[in-house]
């Protein structure tokens, strides 16, 4: 298993959605840390554990851009298959992130049908 500890490896204060909006954005996290580790996990046939504990809150825009953004790039099924989440401090974040990714899945199905 490969692991990312957001607070230790990126920031204790995750920021906005996009880089242009400020420091420690979801876009920056996805591009610099999440995407390379995702590809590593996939290449090695391992899962990727995302530890959200230790951060002083994770804005929804940060989470949506990082994780749904990854799903928009690689498909929701691929992302859901490899990613696991840990959040003892704010357990509801796990369900939120999974819903953001699943939202991309719904969009994928609509575009295939349409």
Question: Your description of this structure?
Answer:
By secondary structure, the chain is mainly alpha-helical. The chain is globular, with a radius of gyration of 13 Å.
Overall average residue pLDDT? 93
| Count of individual helical segments | 5
Structure class: mainly alpha
Radius of gyration: 13 Å
Helix content: 55-70%
Describe the sheet with the most strands: 3 strands, parallel
Multimeric status of the protein:
single chain
Distance between the termini: 37 Å
- Estimate the strand proportion: 5-15%
> How do the strands line up in the largest sheet?
1-2-3
- Helix/strand order, N-terminal first: EHHEHHEH
What is the number of strand segments? 3
Shape: globular
Segments where pLDDT lies below 50 for 5+ residues?
Answer: 110-114
Which characteristics define this entry?
59% helix; single chain; three-stranded parallel beta sheet; 114 residues; mainly alpha; disordered C terminus
């Amino acid at each position: 298993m490969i692991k990312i500890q957001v607070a230790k490896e990126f920031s204790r204060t995750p920021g906005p959605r996009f880089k242009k909006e400020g420091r420690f954005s979801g876009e920056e996290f996805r591009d610099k840390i999440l995407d390379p580790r995702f590809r590593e996990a996939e290449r090695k046939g391992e899962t990727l554990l995302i530890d959200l504990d230790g951060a002083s809150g994770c804005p929804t825009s940060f989470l949506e851009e990082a994780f749904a953004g990854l799903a928009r790039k690689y498909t929701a099924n691929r992302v859901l298959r490899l990613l696991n989440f840990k959040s003892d401090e704010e357990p509801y974040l796990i369900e939120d992130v999974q819903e953001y990714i699943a939202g991309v899945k719904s969009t994928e199905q609509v575009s295939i049908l349409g």
